[in-house]
């Protein structure tokens, strides 16, 4: 039983690699969120990830690798993948590719494609290197929380979510990016954006020299793309800035207590209030920690000021929309 995170020193990382090689789970930091890691080539370990998270068996995992060479062990590696890896790996970009017939399919959710990412966090990279030294080819690692809930960006969040079932948790501090990776599908004839993240469409198109449209009806399933996801227990509602005070008054009249995450000066009468950074990168970094803090405030509703519509806010807007689609949430107000 591991009830406290462990500082991610060299000894802890070696212990984590040993556990992974033995078929156990390990939670570890990446630059995006904390991951619940398992040997991607172990059917037993992957089954335990699905059980512990309560994740549907047809929802694929992302396999974390050190580099393009290790990724090519798992998947056919087209020129587009190499260009994107050269530009953004290690970093917050997942590539969905056609899995090699010889590679294990346990993390693929029943699909012919596989999601691969080379994280940049030094603890994640040290763990992947130590695991590779023990013969490992990659670590499947969805976010280290119960399925559909707010992703963890600090080690203590993992303990909060998984409780006494938490495996060894390597504490590498707060995640730098704070939202999950951008996912690009390269398994078909053209690249398609499956999930926005820290790498923008404009950056992808600049490297590829071609358009990267959004997901379509034939897109493969990918992590974090269900309509309702990233949701706290308290219902989330998105509200335009000029409607915040009116909405708080209406909720108070119904006897509700209101928590608020807001960019503007509105909402002075909220029962709990956090300021949202004006910069989209800073807002992404703060997003999940803010939702967790407001979820613990004892309020019955979380209001979030709707963010700008420009491309720099795309990842934050996506996560907020999905969190508001959870039970009791309201995406439009």
Q: How is the biggest beta sheet arranged? A: 10 strands, mixed
Count the E strands: 14
Helix and strand content put the structural class at: alpha/beta
Q: What's the CATH first level of the largest domain?
A: Alpha Beta
Report what the structure shows.
This protein has 333 residues and is of the alpha/beta class. The protein folds into 2 domains: 6-208, DHBP synthase (Alpha-Beta Complex), CATH 3.90.870; 236-324, Threonylcarbamoyl-AMP synthase, C-terminal domain (Rossmann fold), CATH 3.40.50.11030. 32% of the residues lie in helices and 17% in strands. It has 10 helices and 14 strands. A hairpin with a 4-residue loop joins strand 2 and strand 3. The longest helix is centred in the C-terminal third of the chain and has 16 residues, at 280-295. The chain is globular and about 60 Å long. The model has no long low-confidence stretch (mean pLDDT 95).
């Amino acid at each position: 039983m591991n009830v406290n995170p462990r500082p991610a020193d060299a000894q802890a990382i070696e212990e984590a690699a040993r556990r992974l090689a033995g078929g156990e789970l390990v939670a570890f930091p990446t630059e995006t969120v904390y991951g619940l890691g398992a040997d991607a080539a172990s059917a037993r370990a992957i089954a335990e990830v699905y059980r512990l998270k309560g994740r549907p068996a047809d929802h694929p995992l992302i396999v974390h690798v050190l580099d393009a060479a290790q990724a090519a062990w798992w998947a056919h590696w087209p020129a587009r993948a190499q260009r994107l890896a050269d530009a953004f790996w290690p970093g917050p970009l997942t590539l969905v590719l056609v899995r090699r017939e010889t590679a294990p399919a346990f993390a693929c959710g029943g699909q012919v494609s596989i999601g691969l990412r080379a994280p940049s966090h030094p603890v994640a990279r040290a763990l992947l290197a130590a695991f590779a030294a023990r013969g490992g080819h990659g670590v499947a690692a969805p976010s280290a929380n119960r399925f559909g809930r707010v992703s963890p960006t600090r080690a203590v969040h993992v303990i909060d979510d998984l409780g006494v079932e938490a495996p060894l948790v390597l504490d590498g501090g707060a995640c730098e990016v704070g939202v999950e990776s951008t996912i690009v599908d390269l398994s078909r004839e053209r690249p398609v954006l499956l999930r926005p993240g820290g790498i923008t469409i404009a950056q992808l198109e600049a490297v590829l020299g071609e358009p990267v449209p959004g997901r379509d009806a034939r897109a493969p399933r990918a992590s974090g793309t269900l309509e309702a996801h990233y949701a706290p227990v308290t219902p989330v509602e998105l509200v335009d800035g000029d409607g915040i005070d009116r909405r708080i008054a209406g909720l108070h009249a119904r006897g509700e207590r209101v928590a608020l995450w807001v960019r503007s000066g509105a909402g002075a009468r909220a029962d709990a209030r956090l300021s949202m950074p004006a910069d989209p990168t800073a807002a992404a970094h703060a997003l999940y920690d803010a939702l967790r803090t407001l979820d613990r405030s004892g309020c019955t509703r979380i209001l979030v000021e709707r963010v700008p519509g420009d491309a720099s806010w795309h990842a934050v807007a996506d996560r907020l929309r999905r969190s508001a689609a959870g039970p009791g949430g309201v995406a439009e107000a």
